[in-house]
Amino acid sequence: MSFLNEQWNEILFKFKSLPPEYHFYFIVGLSLLVVVMVLVRSAELSKIRWQLQEQIQELDKTAKTLIRRDFERNQFSEQLRLMDEAKTYFITVAAHQLRTPLSAIKWALKFLLNGDAGELVPAQKEYIKSIYETNENIIKLVNDLLDISRIESGRFEYSFKEGDVAEVMAMVVSLFSLVAQNKNIKLTFEKPVGVSGVVKFDAEKIQMVLENLVGNAINYTPAGGQVTVSLAEDSDKIKISVTDTGIGIAARDLPQLFSKFFRLDSAVKMVPNGTGLGLFISKSIVLRHGGNIDVKSEVGRGSVFMFDLPKKEPVASGSADVGLKKFIGNK
Amino acid sequence: MSEVEQQIVAPAPGDVVLVVEDDAFLRRMLTEKLHKEGLNVFEATNGTEAHESLNKQTPNIILLDLMMPGTDGFQLLREIKTDAKTKDIPVMVLSNLGEKEHIERAMSLGVVDYMIKAHFVLDEIVSKIKSILNK
């Protein structure tokens, strides 16, 4: 330190001993330096200001773009809505146009089967029966597609009324009793004493679910097997299950089972005419009721499809709609 | 069930059915079946022809298709139900339109029944017609 001080003192001394005009030049030089520094600094500042202004303009542009994008997105969702409407209209009209020739075929084949156009030999009758059944399957497919279009566009209308699900179950079981008997399958309905199936539900839709599950159980169960429809109850819901001793479903296939158009190879082999839409529609219906549908299965042993319906009013809980929308992947 | 009903309920001889249907093959089968059941049939392929037929005779029942070229079924139905001469004739819709809105619209216009063609065979349709005629 002392060394630096000494040096500084020496410089100061030398400077003081210079002639006075050198002092003047030094002051002028120093002033010029300060002025130049100030000028440079202000130039820098104005450059920063200019950059900031540019950034503000940039931000402004971005904001405008965002506003425009939002507007475009609104327009886009409007276009999507219109497309969705067009799709629904198309399916409705196409269904009508398909049903007209299908009903002509249905009526004409029945005409032939009744012997109204002359008696048929047994082989002819067999062929015509097969065509009739195939035609019925196409009609079923058209109906399923219409239902799906209704489900996806939110036009599948429900009317919830208080009633006894057990009555619908008994009716579906009796509806299928002949089919089961013809296939040599024991179809039974079990309802323990004291269990009540009274809830608020849409009887027509739950009947569709039950017809689907019982129909599947019979279809995928070999002769000599058993299908049991049963009702149970706990404090907040009723539980319906359809148990069969059929071919069963592999664990890896279970997650996709309720997807649209999904059909197992083993199922296609056994029932070639299925549409792959029944379980999708069934799950949509159960979810709309605020319930759940699930399956347990073992290959070669059989399957249990079970669903529950809440005892509290289904329309009152908004969560039912959320679950349904999540399932059908809509909006 | 339909066969049993058919045997019990015989149509009054001379009951007249007006079939309004644009599809020629369906119309032919309907007419043939109704003739076989002892009913008199008049045919119309669209609204205009239906009006012409209604000007000439009063049927006991009208079978009405909904989707037709020209005057469609709904319009024809409204005209039938607002004309004092025809408003009391029972109208049964026989269509392949089956959306809830179509059914409700037809019901609100005063039809006695609504059948989706593809869901029934002719025997079932005839049974329904007979039960309406016998009311």
The dominant shape of chain B is globular
Number of E-type strands of chain B? 5
- Tell me the structural class of chain B: alpha/beta
Low-pLDDT regions of chain A: none
By DSSP, the count of extended strands of chain A is 7
Determine the strand fraction of chain A and express it as a percent band.
5-15%
Question: What value does the average pLDDT of chain A take?
Answer: 87
Residue fraction in strands of chain B: 15-25%
Whole-Å distance between the termini of chain A?
A: 78 Å
- Would you tell me the structural class of the helices and strands of chain A? alpha+beta
Number of helices of chain B: 6
Order of helices and strands of chain B: HEHEHEHEHEH
Largest interface: A-B, 19 and 19 residues
Give, in spatial order, the strands making up the sheet with the most strands of chain A.
2-4-5-7-6
Radius of gyration of chain A: 40 Å
Give the helix level of chain A as a range of percent. Answer: 55-70%
Spatial strand order of the main sheet of chain B: 2-1-3-4-5
Shape of chain A: elongated
Task: Describe what this molecule looks like in 3D.
The complex is a heterodimer of chains A (331) and B (135). Chain A is of the alpha+beta class and 331 residues long. In chain A, 61% of the residues lie in helices and 14% in strands. Chain A is built from 8 helices and 7 strands. Chain A has helices spanning 2-16, 20-113, 122-152, 165-182, 203-219, 265-270, 278-288, 319-328; strands spanning 161-164, 186-190, 198-201, 226-233, 237-244, 292-298, 302-310. Chain A has a 5-stranded mixed beta sheet with strand order 2-4-5-7-6. In chain A, strand 4 and strand 5 (237-244) form a beta hairpin. In chain A, helix 7 (278-288) packs antiparallel against helix 8 (319-328). Chain A is elongated. In chain A, 24% of the residues are buried. With 135 residues, chain B is of the alpha/beta class. Chain B contains 6 helices and 5 strands. Chain B has helices spanning 2-8, 24-36, 47-56, 73-82, 100-108, 122-133, and strands at residues 16-20, 40-44, 61-64, 91-95, 113-116. Chain B has a 5-stranded parallel beta sheet with strand order 2-1-3-4-5, with helices on both faces. In chain B, strand 3, helix 4 (73-82) and strand 4 (91-95) form a beta-alpha-beta unit. In chain B, helix 1 (2-8) runs parallel beside helix 6. The longest helix of chain B has 13 residues, at 24-36. Chain B is globular, with a radius of gyration of 14 Å. The model of chain B is unreliable at 1-10 (pLDDT under 50). The chains are: A alpha+beta (331), B alpha/beta (135). Chains A and B meet through helix 2 and helix 3 of A and helix 2 of B.
